Structure prediction request, 626 residues.
Amino acid sequence: MHKDEQDGIEVHNSLHGSQELTPPALPPRPRLEIDGRPLNSSAGSLRLSKRASRPQLLSQATTALSPADVHNQASVQTSSPSGILSRRQSLDHVTRLSSHGDSGGDDSGSLKSYAPTMDARFDGESLLGGLVEHDETPAWKALSAQIERQDPFSTIDALEDSASLQLKYEFDSLEATHGRTEDDLLELWKAKLKHFFILSASGKPIYSRHGDDRLISNYIGIAQTIISFYQGAGDPLRSFTADHTRFVMLANGPLNLVAVSKLGESEGQLRTQLESLYMQILSTLTLPSIEQIFSKRPSTDLRRPLQGTDVLLDGLADGFTRGSPSTLLSALECLRLRKTHRRTINDTLLKVRSPNLLYGLIIAAGRLVSVVRPKKHSLYPGDLHLIFNMLFGAGSVKAGDGGENWIPLCLPGFNNTGYLYMYVSFFSTTVTPTSSTIATPTASGTPSTERSHLPSKPDELAIVLISANKESFYELRRMRDDLVKQLEKNNSMAVIKTAIHKGHQTTTDLIPATLLRHFLYKSRANVQFTMPSFEPHYHGLVAKRKLMTLYAALHEAIHSRTGKLKVQHVVSSEATALAWETPLLELYCVAGPQVSRALLAQGANRVVQWVRREEERVFIIGGAVF
Prediction:
């Protein structure tokens, strides 16, 4: 029997009157066709293999990033409890359909297998634009009858005009200036679209993104009263909404964190952001230190030991407000390089590795270029987010071209009880490093350099070397010197600088003739994502924030605990969008408001095909392991 026929499944119906003890032979599986070609032909768009629904366990270190803390909404994964895949499975178990050129029919094939899991509001035919010709099964009709018919996206316009206008002033400072009264400042504070508060269990304010103690003291007291009431009842308050504003609370030991957002984000997304702020505090003080401080004196003012870290917390908070793909997807973005070029860089890192090195990173324009790590230790995306924010987001670590920083740092994902020591050196992407400026940590652990006040430039290159030995500064400096020398010698430095200057390519540069305006593709196995440039369709802060709001709505739809959808289609007044989740990937793509579902599906498949071809260019597979 043909292999495809062996895979067929028949549901025997007793109404047919068959009383034979021996069941009849299985009939051949129906052969669906697209544009006259069978779906199960040999090449073309992607579809999952039979084994893809149950990921295999990792037998060895296969990626530079650890998925352990990535799926912080792990309860919503429908494919497996862990959601962890081996690197080989990510593409080796995927088969292809027949391809005659780059036709739309091929591109629509892979979404076909997900039609039964779509929202009942959009059946398979409507999503694929008439490409599916089979009628609905009784099981599908029964499921449709049980699903709520109200469209959760019926009113989505990303941001209302008033919110869009306010976003332009969201990051303005609330300082008492000439002509401003306290009432004026209070109104400006209330107009902010997003607030973050951190307070102790006794109600002492620790951090607020907007406003000083005079502005926030009353509201901190109200928040503490509400939190304490529910904690005392044994039912901690997690979130509530009031007049299109969402309040989310997170209690971690002696600290309470509160997020207030008018940007339409879900509870889970805001909770993830609060967890990142909590990790930022741990990176400065470590968990045992915080517990010891509050065990001795519960009313301690934690702002003194955290002095100097407000800029880091502000950098994280502002990134969340602007919209961060990395935070939304809990993944990292890598600099796109040829496979051979990245291998050369990895080999160079291994060649010059210092004996006391734990992790080594090369970071360019906020994107990871290469990583060297021990075989038994992975890097956690949450820890890397903290490093990226420190270097490029908040701009708190600067020493100029060729300068140096030596920073004690706790990486909570790796070990939240102790410090590691991070050597950082920046390089201009246009000038060869010629000078060095040594920086030493202050008493608070914040590095002090002669150029620490300068903002971070997006085109700078950073070499980050991490060690558990606090006496390894000079050793890591020698490694930095050897690394730069070798990268210059084998032309890798020029390759990196060229890739930085090239920047993100537009969607049409990556996928010619596509109708997509933007997309986010996450490889769940590698815990990394790739995306095109926001230009030309999403220029400026407001346009990018609107796009990220749409992505957040799609993300919530497919990760909702009650939805469990594999494919979600959204139509708003400004765009049509599609979210597609499999055990291997998450894909979010956006097109213009008049693009049909069929064309959107075709565009989604072309993105998957492009990533398959470019996987070892857009993702770091394994990295340099010793």
In short: Confidence is low (pLDDT under 50) at residues 1-20, 31-136, 139-156, 431-456. The longest strand covers residues 245-252.
